[in-house]
Amino acid sequence: MRTCRASAAGKLTVVLATVVVVLAGCGGGPSPRAWAASVCGALTPWRSEISKLTSSTDEQMTAQTTPAQAKENLVRLFAGAEQASEAARRKVEKAGVPETDNGEAISAGFRSSLGKMRDAYGRARDTIDGLGIGEPTVFYDGVRAAVETLNAEYDASALDTSKLNSEELKQAFDEVPECR
């Protein structure tokens, strides 16, 4: 299941790279530098947790365990990814709206993307939790299908920055220590 790990890690990299290329907000909120620091402060531990969970999932899929053990471990891992994504979403929400053009849309885009990722992990968890363990081949085929769906939903949750571009935020993401 190495493709799962590489695929999820690659998608995560794309999402995080999107953060650097980002966006633009509107008056009264934190400065672009303060907002970028808050967002990176939210996404850095999330990225680490998702990477760790992805690696653990890959190990679980290649380990010699029973379907019951695999099911328990995978449900726990995906629940952890769901919780980590929600924690990051809440932190981005607390960061407020950056004081730059399109700040509300930028902030909403980040929150929405993280919420979609959270939901994708939750659906994967629920799908695997609902799989029977009596037939190992059927179980692992179901797990692979759940991971493929997760990867597709993860792709679909990526933040579209094509219409959001703020030189102030791009510079802030490049400069603040929290984003390095």
Explain what the structure shows.
This is Lipoprotein. It comes from Micromonospora arborensis. It is a single chain. The protein has 180 residues and is mostly helical. The chain has one domain (2-179). Helix content is 76%, strand content 0%. It has 6 helices and no strands.
Low-confidence stretches: 1-27
What's the shape? elongated
- Total discrete domains: 1
DSSP strand content: under 5%
Radius of gyration: 18 Å
Decide which structural class fits the backbone.
mainly alpha
**Termini separation:** 30 Å
Mean pLDDT, to the nearest integer, reads: 82
Helix content: over 70%
N-to-C series of helices and strands = HHHHHH
Q: What is the tally of beta strands?
A: 0
Report on the biggest sheet. Answer: none
- Helix count, DSSP H or I runs of 4 or more residues: 6
Organism: Micromonospora arborensis
Protein name: Lipoprotein
Topology:
Elements lengths: L1 H20 L10 H31 L4 H29 L7 H27 L6 H21 L10 H9 L5
Helix pairs in contact: 1-2, 1-5, 2-3, 2-6, 3-4, 4-5
State the main characteristics.
180 residues, elongated, single chain, mainly alpha, 6 helices
